[in-house]
Write a structure and sequence with these properties.
With 127 residues, the chain is mostly beta strands. It contains two helices and eight strands, in the order ββαββββαββ.
Length: 127
């Protein structure tokens, strides 16, 4: 799972195998270590919940979890939509834009770099 953060936006991109694990287990996570020791890491996770009706974000020390409604996640996984998108109200005037997207193959990369990616819908298109 890829994580991208910029200003007040958060973007996660999932490979097909990560999507399968999310659907099967309901939770996937990865950890980035910045230095030795237990406090020098950031864990980011994605989970689906049948009890949630809208995308939410949980933030705790060293951990970010994006929670998706289970029904929306299953529909997205089986369909052609690129992603699920939300805007989390943080109180006036701030908000957090969140995108959870399928990780598509890059058109300018080879097979090795594009392993475990979704087929790019623009493959074969003429610019």
């Amino acid at each position: 799972m890829k994580l991208r953060m910029k200003e007040n936006s958060l973007r996660l991109r999932l490979s097909p195998s990560e999507m399968a694990r999310l659907l099967q287990d309901g939770h996937i996570e990865e950890t980035v270590r910045f230095a030795p020791g237990p406090g020098a890491a950031l864990t980011y996770a994605l989970e689906q919940s049948p009890h949630c009706t809208a995308m939410t974000v949980r933030y705790e020390a060293h951990s970010i979890t994006v929670v998706l409604p289970a029904e929306s996640t299953e529909t997205w996984a089986e369909g052609q939509d690129v992603g699920l998108y939300g805007n989390i109200d943080l109180g006036r005037p701030e908000s957090l834009d969140v995108a959870v997207e399928k990780d598509f193959a890059c058109l300018d990369k080879g097979e090795a770099e594009n392993a475990d990616t979704f087929p790019n819908p623009r493959q074969g298109a003429v610019c």
